[in-house]
Records
---
Amino acid sequence: MITNYTEVCIFCYQPKQDVHHLVFGRANRRLADEDDLTVPVCRECHDLLHKHDKISKVIGQLAYERNKCAEGYSVDAARESFRLRYGKSYL
């Protein structure tokens, strides 16, 4: 999970009802679990994220790249790593 605040929705602070995979789809959901690209959400925000899915994927990619940069990757190498792992870049 990309936040330490796991009991409330990351967007509206209502009680958490679900966990959202920031990068989703068949294969990507498993990868997002492995990369901890999940956030706590309420049902309403979860539904909105799926209606406007690009913002979710952008946030997921930014979190992934931040983690890779913390491991010593350059920004360009982190972006390429995301593209290779998830099949495309959202940035």
---
Amino acid sequence: MQKVLEDHNSKIDPRAGDLEGLKDFLVEKRGFLLRLLENPNLLEHELFTELLWAVFHLVEELSHRARIDELPDSDYAHLAGDMKRAYGLLVREWLAHMEHLKNEYPYLFSLAVRTNPFDPQARPEVG
């Protein structure tokens, strides 16, 4: 799956979703993100740290724009790149987390598979 992710080209269009909602959500979580960055145990994991920096950068980019719905195309392209970076790192970390759960905590893995955020048909009920 990691090879598939490496070759996958995510196409992100910031105008297609609720960019203002994403901005509000991430700005609200800024304090939490800062606390994660301050945690020395988490900083030992380079990929997770890279993910945190990518998300934090996206928060900063979004929070500095007063009118997110009236940006020039160049800004939307820049935000798409920032979003693509954060999303790609997030997916890689999610996959690593799933592998860890499968190997170490199969009962937690079972629920995680049933609630897979990439499967729109996912349900927590055992089928």
---
Amino acid sequence: MLDVIIVGGGPAGLDAALILGRCRRSVLLIDAGRPRNAVSRGVNGFLTRDGVLPGEMRRIGREQLAPYENVRLQAGEVTDARRTEDGFEVVLKDGSREKSRKLLLATGLFDDLPDIPGFRDLYGRAVFNCPYCDGWEERDRALAVYGAGDGGCGFAVEMRVWSQDIVLFTDGDTTMSAEARARLARNGITLREEKIAVLEADGERLRAVRLDSGEAIPREALFFTHVERLGCTIIRALGCDVSAKGTVKTGPYETTNVPGLYVAGDASRRVQFAIVAAAEGAMAAFAINTELANEDFP
């Protein structure tokens, strides 16, 4: 039986594998190879790796795991998992099974994109979900913000950090409060509540947001608030408590309500930065090794 199985090979999973490898733990990292940031033009805000391509960061991480013969990397998709008397068992898509004493899920989140023509085509090029990741590159441009209700207002006002030329599109939603509308006006943000017909592009750049009325509003980039979903179904299958915002409720050192099960990365926190995910992976690894040591040497 393995000491630890890690599901997910992004920054959280890779850093956890590195720490646990250095603790001489037997580790299996299983990665389905579908990173959330695959379309990103760079991982930003990660000290010493600012702007590195996501695939390059993962390559470097895997390369740095090579000296640890006790860490094994495996491509595959985990389709099921269950608790056992002495730990956990995971089932892969090919039918194979692996067992471990502890389980770390670092499967992240997926973004459910609005069903608007042009939205998916521009995602990662001129359509973004994180201003901390891409706001600097789009600074001082004519920006569109996509979001509904008072939350959309808050996000649009936050975007004033990066540009003074902002139009908030609610795509037919008219639920925004009077207080939020007044806040937009105070901050010079235009509100458009009509339905959006299409995002028009010029190559890989956004050219305009065209409304159902036919009016085209010139914009150069779009940032959106969105619906997220957990990166794997086994989180719920194992009985993890999930917040109303769709992330796992984790305690100190990425513990969950399920003994021996840890969740790190985007699925466990609202600050979804790659560097934070890596730190959470390290914290989970610390806690896992401590728990294993206490069991091995009572």
---
Amino acid sequence: MEPEIALAARIKAIGFQCQRCGDCCRRVARESNLVMVGPPEIRRICTATGRAWREIAEPYPEFIEDGQGTRYTFGWCLKRTEDRCMFLEHDHCAVYDHRPWICRTYPFMLGEEGLMVFECPGLGRDIADKDAVAIARNLLARTRAEDEEYAAVKMHFMNMKPSGGRTLVIDSEGEKPIHG
């Protein structure tokens, strides 16, 4: 059986229908609504909104220090207000058609152990075959995109030249200095 079909069958058996409640976009625990995004996703949202990169994305909040004065992190996340994603407006996503992979596939994720399912009020509800297939396709595309991002980040990190005293985000496009 094709991976997409087998994955869609699992999703159909679990059941899911988005309730458009916005719960996944709200902070209910520390980092509960942290939306990791790669450069292609950030650029897509920038184009759709007319906003600059730094207006919508911030460095992933966990930094590593190299012992020579350089701090770095390995990615970006969407900016948040105190309690929600900056794009959650009146319980609806303002960038829905351009939303990141993590948002397109929630509450599902493919991990090393296979399909992972996160808490969501929409679970256990009937899902049409075509919708289960669409989620399966998005999950497989998300996994490919994340694997490509990881490989590129690793390559840039391995080729990084020591340079003390900087704060950097290392993403698939290379090193990006953070000021302030």
